[in-house]
Description:
CATH class: Alpha Beta
Structural class: alpha/beta
Shape: globular
Largest sheet: 5 strands, mixed
Strand order of the largest sheet: 10-9-8-11-12
Amino acid sequence: MRLVELRGSGATRSLVKYAYVPIDAKLSQSDSKVDQQKLAKILQNLIAEARPTTSNVAVGIPSSRVFTTVVDFDQLPQNELGKAIMYQADSLIPTPPAESKIDWAVIGESPKDKTKVELLLSSVSNSFIESRLDMIESIGLNVIAFEPDSIALSRSLVAADATTPQLIIDIGQQSTDLVITMNEAPRLTRSIPTGAEAIVRSAMQNLNIDDKQAAQFVFKFGVSKDKLEGQVYQAVIGTIDMLVSEIDKSIKFFQTRYPSIPLGQMIVSGAAATIPELPLYLANKFGVNVEIGNAWRNVTFAADRQNELLAMSNQFAVAVGLAERAE
Length: 327
């Protein structure tokens, strides 16, 4: 669980507070009331420790819980567009519209049909949002927005003046978020149910070691063929290549919609940024530049905190992106 408070407006904000506390991934995903109460207590303690100067919060929605897509839609006046989207919602989202919260934004002209516009459309179940809202408000916080993690990632990691599509690869504990952004808007988002735990598990099983040693090996030797005679590489490369295959599918899907626009670069975050030689492996596989994401790129802070903050940058991209959003 991560907290970031920023001050200011415009392109650059200043850091006021940041804090974090490790929690069990299963607890964070659980919908049970008992687990929600445990989460509320952890959050309350985090707030008490960090002592932020505001009670207004923007909350991330895990990609596994939200449906986000880009669709072509008729060009209509703003007030009519909303009505038309709700009228057609059954065919646009996978859950019953009456049980879902739906949000959308026009992001440009359709590349397929000049008479239509592109919409970025997101939906999430009412039950998920309402349970999280109740939990967060129960400790005195005021939720001003829920936002998909993919949009927050894009805001913090992609330069506003980027002229080519950027692919974000954010490997979490249990899943990996893939986001392709162009012109400051996500054009493709996917959540793949393979994360750092799966990579560590591969090392455990193939090297016959315990989970702690497996994690040490993965984050010390990574996908280097030269370390430990390539044993760790051989142990994890099957799982890594499963991810690579999904990344390849996502790029190809993007290029079927935008065939004349090549991918500019990849930005890696989460475990993708800290597994040794994984960024290089991806660069060689796809023939594009790979950048280590810096969540603090648009945030100012005291010079003596640089090493401290950059060391954990790969873990704060979503939290920083949420804090950067305009209210």
